[in-house]
Amino acid sequence: MAAHGRGINHPPRFQDRSPCSTKHSDLGRKGSGMVVEGTWDWGQFAAHQANRRRELWALLGDLPSPRQPTARLLSVESGPGYTVEHLELDLNGLEPAPALLLLPHRRRQPAPGLLYLHAHGGTYELGKEELLRGRDVLQPYAPVCAEQGLVALAIDSWCFSGRKHKADGVRGEHDAFKLMLWRGQTLWGMMLFDEFQAVTYLASRPEVDPQRIGVFGLSMGSTKAWWLAALDPRIACCAHLCCLTDYEELIKIDNLAGHGVYYYVPRLLKHFQTRDICELIVPRPHLSLNGRRDLLTPPAGVEKIRDHLLPLYRRYGREEDCRIELEDCGHEETASMRATVRDWFEAHLARSA
């Protein structure tokens, strides 16, 4: 049984892997703000972002060609204030991706969309169900989506839940990582490609306003959120919790083991630091809430990224659209974080015209 969808224009082809004409040392570090003798060149900064976006995609290995995803409706269930469609999506032509689409009973037509990005946490069985069930450090977000009228899509990432192909989840992830390297791919790149395609599917749904699609996640979902927002200009709003990790600071505190193998991309640090990736989101709304006691997210790195991005948002007159903050907590969502995220969704998705 086919699920509903509408055709949309495909996003720009990121397979164009031609290198940037301007070296990273000229734009990515020394002049990333495009300030020349006290002036701001908007066009040059936008061109810089487009070039760097292509460069970032190119680091992610050989990826499938983007195409309109197809969906098969498996079942429908009701929840408090919403309906859930259980779907099987063809996102990459390689293996189907089980998915959940949450449709609030009370919503505008068309409604804002939210791509919900699940965490890792070693819970390979949970996957997309996190949207409905939450996890030990995160309460479910289904009630928030229902209350705010957000049509939310969540897919199982590679190696999780319906895409967990080995009883030992760690071995399954490691084997997928190794096999993809042999094939010229990266696990992180294939994960992000699927989420990119999931945005295409979400935007095609008749219930959704394709101009108002946000991303949200915690932990691995957090990292996916800011990477995806950087790579895909269709993302109108980015919010994430507990993983705005500065790579050099992670090296300094000697905690590379804290992140799974999926996290590591060959040659990345030769071209990008976290702040350089997040710079590609400017000036779109970006909320990042992190724990000062989170060993996966060194606080010095969060402050470094914040201090790099805020001046860029000020140049656009949109400083309030960049909130990068630390709370006195660990790798977990707090009640105040939940309240801030709700307000962020309300301001940047639910109320937006």
What labels would you give this structure?
single chain; alpha/beta; Rossmann fold; nine-stranded mixed β-sheet; 11 helices; globular; disordered N terminus
- Helix fraction, binned, reads 25-40%
The level-1 CATH class? Alpha Beta
The geometry reads as: globular
**Domains (count):** 1
Biggest sheet, spatial arrangement of strands: 3-4-5-7-6-8-9-10-11
Quick one: CATH superfamily?
Alpha/Beta hydrolase fold, catalytic domain
Order of helices and strands: HEEHEEEEHHEHHEHEHHEHEH
- The CATH topology label is Rossmann fold
> What's the β-strand tally?
11
From the N-terminal CA to the C-terminal CA, the straight-line distance is 33 Å
- Based on secondary structure, the structural category is alpha/beta
- Proportion of strand residues: 15-25%
Number of contiguous helices: 11
- Average pLDDT for all residues: 91
What does this structure look like?
The chain has helices spanning 24-29, 42-58, 130-133, 142-148, 169-182, 187-204, 220-231, 247-252, 274-278, 299-315, 335-350; strands at residues 35-36, 39-40, 70-79, 82-90, 97-104, 111-117, 151-155, 208-218, 237-241, 286-291, 322-327. By secondary structure, the protein is of the alpha/beta class. It has a single domain, classed as Alpha/Beta hydrolase fold, catalytic domain (Rossmann fold, 3-Layer(aba) Sandwich). A 9-stranded mixed sheet has the order 3-4-5-7-6-8-9-10-11, sandwiched between helices. Strands 1-2 form a two-stranded antiparallel sheet. The protein starts with 23 loop residues before the first helix and ends with a helix.
